[in-house]
Amino acid sequence: MPIENKTLRLGDAAPDFTLADASTGEGVSLDDLLGQSLFINFGRGTW
Predict the structure, then answer these.
(1) CA distance 11 to 28
(2) Non-local CB neighbours of 29 within 8 Å, separated by 6+ positions
(3) How many CA atoms lie within 13 A of 35 on its CB side?
(4) Nearest to 17 by CA among 40, 44, 47
(5) SS3 18
(6) 3-state secondary structure of 29
(7) Could you read off the pLDDT of 3-24 as tens digits, one per residue?
(8) Whether residue 1 has pLDDT greater than 70
């Protein structure tokens, strides 16, 4: 099965995704934060 390239380029819209809130464990999606300032850092091999 070929690997799909999902690299975003500067100016691309981020796809919606849901992650667990660190405090409550409830799901929070990117769409829930629409209109708010948001910083997302995806660092390969870092934590």
Answers:
(1) 23
(2) 16, 17, 18
(3) 1
(4) 40
(5) strand
(6) strand
(7) 677 788 888 888 888 989 889 9
(8) no
Which tokens is 43 given? 């660092």
Tokens 């850092």 sit on residue: 41
Residue type, position 40, single letter: I
Structural Rg of the chain based on CA atoms = 13
pLDDT in tens, 27-43: 999 899 889 998 877 77
Do residues 6 and 14 touch, judged by C-beta distance below 8 A?
A: no
Tokens representing 40 are: 């997302």
Phi, then psi, of 33 in degrees rounded to 5: -100, 10
